[in-house]
Structures are given as C-alpha cells and as structure tokens.
Amino acid sequence: MSAPDERETLAPSLYAHVLALRATAPDAPLPPGGLPLPRGARPPRDGTPGPRAREAREAVTALVRSALADADPVRAALALERDLSAAGIRERAVHAAVVALPPPEEAPDRARALARALTRTGTTVTAVAAGLGLLVPLGEAEDVPYLRALGLLHGLGDQAARALAPLDREAAALARLVRERSDALRPLVDALVRGDERTARALLTGLPTTPRDLGRRQARHLAEAVGLTALLREEPGLLGPALGLLTRMSQGPEAEIRAYDEAVALYETVADRARELPPLLGHRARLVTLAQELDSGDARLLPWPPGRRRAVLVALLAAVGEPESPSDPADRRRAEWIRRTARRLTAVTTGEGAEDLPDGHRTGAPAVPLTSRLRIEVAVGDPGEPTGAETRLLVDGRPLVPSVFALGAGEPPEELLLNGALRAGPEPTEVRLAEATCTEGCCGALHVTVRRDGPHVVWDGWRRPGAPPGLPHAPAYRFDADAYDREVGRAGRDLGWAWPARRTAWLIAEGLRERPGILARWGLRRGWISTDFHRPDVTVITFLGPPLRPDGTPDTEAGTRQFLQRLPDDGRPPRERAAEALRHLAEEDPRRHPEPGE
C-alpha cells in the first residue's frame, strides 16, 4: 500500500492533518468536540436536500461494493472518495450504511486493504467514515494508532470509537470523551490524549462527579479510558473518585453500569476497601446509593457469581456507619436519608430468602405456567443531588423495568401504589409501569394489563408504544393472588419512603381529587403535584387554565397556560400544611399569586 501521504491530490489526508496539528502544538488543549477539519474535508451544503435515508443507504452500499471489486485498494479508495463526495451523503449516513453491510466472507483482506486506504489516505470525512465502518469488523492491532488519531477529529469521534471498541476499549472511550466532554472533563481528557498519566491521575482525584458535572455515559467512558478498576488497585488515593464514578454509572434511569465490562470487579474492589474512606457525608450517601442499586436497580442485573452480590451489598452497608446530625438543614436531611435507607436495605438483605431465581425458563413462552413472586420497593435518591422517588418492581428477584424497558424509571409511588393502580380487580386493567426519561410521546413507555385468573393474578398484554425496536421480550407473569394482594397492600400502606414535602404533595393531591370543586370554581384543572426535582423539600402544585386579564377575569381567548405554586417545607406537619394550602386554593383564585409556569 502507498504511504498515507502519497496521493494524486494536493489535499492532505485527514490522518496526516491530525499528525501535523499535534506535532505543531503537542501540549495544546483540544478544542471542544475535537480538532478542526481541514478546509474542504466536508463539502459545504448548497441548500439542496440530500438523499433520503433509504436512498442514501442503497447508494453507499452500491458504491462500496463497486470499490471492493477493484483489486487495487488505493485506486478503489480514490474512486470511492470521489463518488461519495458527488453523492452528497453526510458522513454519519455513510458510516451507518457501511457498518450495516454483512462482513465480507470472500476476500476479507481486500476489504481490509480498502478500509486502510480510506482511513490513512482519505481527504474527506465521508471517505474516512466509510473506511472506519469497514474496520468495525475487520480492524486489527496495527490499525489502532490510525484510529486513535482520527478519533481526535471533530465529527469522527464516534465512528473511530466504534472501530476501536473491539481492539482497544480504553482508546475507544477516550475518542468518545473527546467528542462529548464537558468543561469539568476538559483538562483531564487533554492529559489523557497527551499520555500524561501523572497529571491525569491528579486531575481524577479532584474530579466532581455530581449529575450537574458528569453524565452517566461520560462517567462510564472515563472509567474505561483510565482503566479504573486496575488503576484503583495501584492508587489507593483514588478510592473516593472511583466511588463517585461507580455511583454515577449506577444511578438510573438509563444507568450505564451494565455497559461497563468491569462493573462487577469495580463493585467488589470498592466494597472491599470501603472502610478506608473518610467518614464524609457524601461518601456515606454514595455507599448507600450503591447498595440501593444493588438491591433493586440495574446493578442487580450484572453477571454476579452466586452469593457475591449480597456479599458486596452487605460490605457496602457495613462501611456506611452512623452519620452525625449536621447543623445545616440540607445536610441534616441527607443524613436522615442515609439512616433511613440503610436501615431498610439492611432489613431487606437480612430477610431475603434464596439468591435470585433463574429466569431462563421464561424467555420464550407467551404465558408462564409457574407462579412468580413479586416484591415492590420505593427507591428514593440521595437528597444531596436532584432526586425523586420511583416504584421498583422485582419479579423473581429481577428488577422488571430495566430488564425490559431500559429507557426510563418506574412510575412514582403515588401513581402506582398510593392510588391502588396495581390492585387486581374483577376486570382487566392496563397500568403504565414506566415512562421514558424524555416522555412517552418521544421514546415510549411500558404498559401491562393486570387481571385476575382464578387463584392467580396475571400480568400480560405488554405494550411499549413509541419505544424503539429491539427491546428484550417481556413475558407474561402469573402470581399467587393472595401473595400478590398482600405485597401490593403492604407497599401501598408503607409511607416510610415519603419525606415531609412529598407527603404534603400527596395530601394536597388527594384533597383536590376528593373535592374537585376547589379548582373548578376558578375554571382550572389540576396538573402534576409533587416535589421540586432540584429542591426536594419544596412542594410544587401546578394547575392549568386561561390567564387572568388585568381586571381579574379569565382571558379564555388566550388559551391554556400552566401555573405553579411552590411551598417550601417550614417544619410543620404535612397534614397541617396541606390543609392550609387547600384552604387558600378554595378561598382565592391561585392565578392571582402564581409563579411562571415551566
């Protein structure tokens, strides 16, 4: 093959462009999103609509197959680059179409040679994207340096990472971090790109891992890029950052922990050394969060050896200890959550029967002849971070929602438990168990039909409207009716999870359901009533209706608006605060003193 810079064109290859930029300023920080492309690497749009997705896929497929027919990879690469540029197809569509091609069973060496000519000598992003797509199944160790370099370019990080993943997982994760990095990650990513391990470790020690600073996927990619599990064994001082990254990966909805190959090993390493952590409130809270996720969240679904999940959970809880009672109200609420949640998890873990039951017998049958067991938990997140409460349903010891609908959290307990939605009545009832994080209208929801069948309660008739294809099969479940009724009744009566502001919200919502005339008097409808996501000790009441004119009359021509009122917790009992809020709503139009709707 010709050297990367031997081409019948004056334009440098993208690979040579990266090498030149790094040689000129090897220690310079990367721009947001990666290094800039050279002029002409991505032809400008002329306003003409490009081909539709199916047309683009068919066109790319035909062009690549034609190129593979040429025995000269350099000549084939030049022709393919020219044809792709003329077709006006964007690089993402090119890459997707090439990845979708079946791996070449005949002449794989020719396809690999074409891929290398495209990635090493290509001057346009579409040509390089095609080469990266071919290397996904065909790449070898010698391709890693080229892929690492191309992963630094703006717009090619994901494609390079896809080809790197089977060859060098750390390099693949770093390519993704280059594209998606936040301001908090920027210095650390720059150090990793330079290969400056000492600086990278120092920056990792002080890295913030709150949801505001670090996304779940970023946390996973960072753990992969630094080889966190092995690094923690070498560097005892990284236990705190490792705890933060593991917690961030484990938190749902849409937790990333099952996508992290070394999740079990990292959980075990953190648990084994958890007692070495300083007794900080944040450390205690993260240990409790990890224990909660092991008990009823995504982390329970990891490939645990028999008995190990429970052993790790017990070790985490043992390291929590007893937090002090801080003077700061927010810290005091966090300490109370740590105590309450740790006690509950300890009781559940101590009282649990045999380790999780296998469920392989359920994968194919439309109806399950065996009776399953249901356990219901309400998981409340760490009050030190944006938090809420979700209903978690465990069937035969396996968390149901992340098993069959990993796109969002379970419904709030007010929607499933306190209003009796899960009760099995004489008629079948459809119940929504979970909604996608973005909303049902965007990415779907999980619905099931609950019905009685003699001595059993059956869950079947699953629906996931709007969800993307390819989700795992959701089987039918059959529960002993008496055991089912006991568990649903227990969960509905247990309000130990509800903090004062959340209880206040529930009592207000119940009062408005029982007395619909309160809002009807003002021409209003009830909206959602809960607690503020970022300030969990603030009760939020929303209502819908037309705005008021300056003279105080409803402006029905202005359409429906959302209004809201916030009620900070003032220490009084929830029942007293709810009664006062209902009295005010009944006596005065709440639109006279609203906050802006969101």
Summarize the structure in words.
This protein has 598 residues and is of the alpha+beta class. The chain is 46% helix and 12% strand. It contains 25 helices and eleven strands. It has helices at 14-24, 53-68, 73-87, 91-99, 108-121, 125-138, 144-150, 157-164, 169-180, 186-194, 197-205, 216-226, 228-234, 239-250, 263-272, 281-296, 308-320, 329-351, 400-404, 413-416, 440-443, 481-493, 500-514, 517-520, 574-587; strands spanning 371-372, 374-380, 389-395, 398-399, 429-435, 445-453, 456-463, 477-480, 525-531, 538-545, 561-568. It has a five-stranded mixed sheet. Strands 2-3-4 form a three-stranded antiparallel sheet. The protein has a three-stranded antiparallel sheet with strand order 9-10-11, covered by helices on one side. The longest helix has 23 residues, at 329-351. It is globular, with a radius of gyration of 28 Å.
Helix content: 40-55%
Count of helical stretches = 25
| Number of distinct beta strands | 11
Residue-averaged pLDDT:
90
State the distance separating the first and last CA atoms: 60 Å
List unreliable stretches of 5+ residues. 1-8, 353-369
Q: Give the class from helix and strand content and strand pairing.
A: alpha+beta
Radius of gyration: 28 Å
What is the topology, as strand order, of the major beta sheet? 1-8-7-6-5
Q: What global shape is seen?
A: globular
What share of residues are in beta strands? 5-15%
